[in-house]
Amino acid sequence: MRQSFRRMMTIVRKEWLHIIRDPRTLALVIVLPVMMLFLLGYAVANDVKDIPLAVADLSHTDTSRTLVDKLTVSEFFMYTHAAQSENEILAMMDAGIVKAGLYIPESFGRDVSTGGVGTIQFYIDGSNPTIAQTAQLAAETISQSMSQEILIKRLERSGTGMQLGLPVDVRMRYLYNPDMKRMNFMIPGLVAIILQVQTLLLTAFAIVREREQGTLEQLIVTPVRSWELMLGKILPFVVVAFVNVVMTVAVGAIWFGVDVVGSSALLAGLSLIFLLGSLGLGVLISNISKTQMQAMYLASFIMMPSFILAGLLFPRENMPWLAYYAGYFLPVTYFLEIVRGIILKGADFFTLWVWIWPMAVFSIVVFFASVLLFHKRL
Amino acid sequence: MSSEKSVQATQLTRKFGDFIAVDQISFDIPKGEIFGLLGPNGAGKTTTIRMLCGILTPSSGAASILGFDVSKQTEEVKQRIGYMSQKFSLYNDLSVSENLNFYANLYGIPREKVKSRIAELIEIAGLQGHEKQLTRNLSGAWRQRLALACAIVHEPPMIFLDEPTAGVDPVSRREFWEMIYTMAGRGVSVLATTHYMDEAEFCNVIGMMYRSRLIALNDPDSLKDEMRGVLFEVDCHEPGRAEKILRDLPTVQDVVAHGVILRVLMTDKTKKVFLEKVLTENEIVIDRIERVLPTLEDVFVSLVDQENRLHVRAEID
Predict the structure, then answer these.
(1) Looking at the complex, does the CB of residue B54 fall below 8 Å from at least one CB of chain A?
(2) Does A333 map to a domain?
(3) What is the CATH number of the domain that holds B282?
(4) Does the residue A175 lie in any domain?
(5) Domain match, B94 and B236 both
(6) Residue B240 domain flag
(7) Same domain, B102 and B137
(8) Is the confidence at residue A164, as pLDDT, over 70?
(9) Do B108 and A3 touch (CB under 8 A)?
(10) Which of A63, A361, B96, B159: CA 20 to 30 A from B177?
């Protein structure tokens, strides 16, 4: 047993030397998660606002101006271009200068003030569905609330003397993410993805590299056992992955203001369980890859679905049923729920149990399978 | 008892799918002997070594190292063998002493002895003063000596060397073989593969492999004696035309061109005058014809030739 431990630590020391002797890779390993954080933070997670809007107001009345004001005050739209006709709006949409257009016909103000229905035409560029959906929702909400105000005024004027209010008043309150910032959704997800990508790739590469260089052949003739070799090779990467997690969470809290509401110890402990499975997958990949190239492609087969199906970028609830259920086969799906639960909601172990047990089962099975299947062979 | 034999291989065979890489080879290596495994690339030398080291499992047949079965008693075998692979599997981003230290710890050299053993190995390999140098910056010959030092860190009584001198200059090759000799003198047995025929002369016993089979097994001198036929060296004008003419003679087994000099292998009864007569009749000017002793290369070429003829005949049948 003491000899076993010594051999394992010999591998760990050697692996550590590889890591620090290759400062470029080390830099990438450390910089990559931070880069992903900033990329997602600034490029992807931006909420939709200031949609450029062209307005052709042929009505020139108070009512039409109020409508335009309400739209532009909302931050969803920015009044960037004034147009004189419907065709001019369409031309600007074609050119991509504006993403939305509002056409108010001459008769609008008169129709509304005489108690009729004022029709307006709203154009939305549907080529980016995210922007289009936001624009549609915003335009509908704003025009509805304006309609209500006008309706109430009409009724009040008709002289019933009553103070009129709407019969149903819905009060919304967002729990956990009161400002509805997408960054709060992204940072916890990134923790999961970074753990998955880093450990999977680094472990697979570290083992396949020995096979490629021919040093694995030399190791086979030494008394080192398969499990000693495997544990010795993955332990340094557990440390690296943990440094990454701490960095991501720290940058998320300090720079983006996403604090960890729940227990950091619980987060660390569950990350470790998730790591086991991810490292195990890396070892399994290295088992069937002869070159680092092959390992890279095989890893993509696990990484791409993790990005998409597990619900990092898009909510799983909106996916077709096949994709939705396929997500349950990825351990990162459970881990995402866990990380978001701890960081955003401050959830505890028992609340998260429904997500913890499937992930733990997966991790332990994969890890032990990889230990058993890992052979020192060519 | 088999314990006097360092290696004992019986009908050792390895198949990769339909391809037979090593076909029923049997040999043994007595203690302290240097055994040379010769043959062209792809003959099965490396596969043979890998089976003996426990890297590949034999498809059939058996082998034992110092009395331990290679497929069953792998742990016992591993402690007793040193293996240096073709590619000098060293870690390029580790220094000379870090490489040695790594293997010393893997082989479980007692901690208090690690330092002195490494110092000793550095001296054997002649790498004093380069302990801190990264392996990637070493020359081919130095990497080779470091690879050997790593392979013998645990003082194995049996060493396997797979093309140890590939890509190394002639002077360093000779120095390397002197190291091997010194070790053999201390009772260490060595199995080395090579395709340098001059290196084969350093070996006590030679096994020649061709097309997955062991086609000859003996000491170098006996192999030369056993060679059938008489060898002549012919130095003449128009060697190209002369080669064609000689090749067509029924008593000529083989003609090999060494630059402008032809080495002609004749069946036993042929005399020098016969060759002179044939060439003169064809108006070829002869500078020199003399009978020479065969080298191992000649032996090998002649054996391969015989083998190919048997092969062709077998295919026709």
Answers:
(1) yes
(2) yes
(3) 3.30.70.100
(4) no
(5) no
(6) yes
(7) yes
(8) no
(9) yes
(10) B96
Band of residue B154 on the pLDDT scale cut at 50, 70, 90: very high
For position B200, what pLDDT does the model report? Answer: 84
Asked if residue B244 and residue B217 are part of one domain, the reply reads no
Structure tokens given for A100: 């939305």
User: Shortest CB distance from B103 goes to which of A6, A213, A222?
Assistant: A222
- Residue A147 maps to a domain: yes
Looking at the structure, tell me whether residues B215 and B235 fall in a common domain: no
Closest listed residue to residue B279, CA positions, set B245, B256, B313, B251 = B245
Q: Is this complex scored with an ipTM above 0.85?
A: no
pLDDT digits (tens, 9 = 90+) for A248-301: 888 888 888 888 888 989 999 999 999 888 888 888 888 888 888 888 888 888
Query: Is the model's pLDDT at A373 over the cut of 90?
Result: no
Rounded to whole angstroms, how far apart are CA atoms A200 and A367? 12
Q: Is the CB of residue A22 less than 8 Å away from at least one CB of chain B? A: yes
A202: which 2 tokens? 């680094």
Burial (0-12, 13-18, 19+ Cβ within 10 Å), B132: exposed
Q: What is the CATH number of the domain that holds A58?
A: 3.40.1710.10
**What is the mean pLDDT of the segment spanning A207-219?**
88
Residue A148's closest CA among A164, A132, A135, A137?
A164
Tell me which chain B residue has its CA closest to the CA of residue A215. Answer: B89
Cα separations (Å) of A378 from A216, A221, A372, B55? 7, 12, 16, 8
B81 contact A CB<8A = yes
Judged by CB atoms closer than 8 Å, whether chains meet at A220 and B107 is answered as: no
Same domain for B233 and B217: no
Nearest to B205 by CA among B27, B68, B48: B27
pLDDT of B1 over the 50 cut: no
**Order of strands, edge to edge, in the sheet holding B230-236?**
B252-258, B261-266, B230-236, B286-292
A356, A313, A322: which is closest to A338 by C-alpha?
Answer: A356
**Residue A378 in domain:** no
A220 contact B CB<8A:
yes
| Domain span holding position A205 | 2-45+181-373
Tally of domains in chain B: 2
- For residue B15, the enclosing domain spans 2-224
How far does B2 lie from chain A, in Å, by closest CA? 23
The answer to whether residues B145 and B255 belong to one domain is no
Do B115 and B244 belong to one domain? no
Q: Residue B113: which CATH number?
A: 3.40.50.300
pLDDT in tens, A119-130: 888 998 888 887
- The residue among B184, B199, B224 that closes a domain is B224
Q: What's the Cα-to-Cα distance from B237 to each of B135, B255, B305, rounded to whole Å? A: 51, 16, 26
| Of residues A18, A213, A220, nearest to B55 (C-beta) | A220
| Both tokens assigned to A140 | 């509908």
E strands, A180-314, are none
Q: Does B102 contact A10 at a Cβ distance shorter than 8 Å?
A: yes
Distance CA A164, CA A153 (A): 9
Give the gap in angstroms from C-alpha B271 to the nearest C-alpha of chain A. 53
Q: Comparing C-alpha atoms, which of A331, A329, A335, A332 is closest to residue A352?
A: A335
Cα–Cα dist A123/A136, whole Å:
9
Q: How many CA atoms lie within 13 A of A207 on its CB side?
A: 38
The answer to the question of residue B300 being in a domain is no
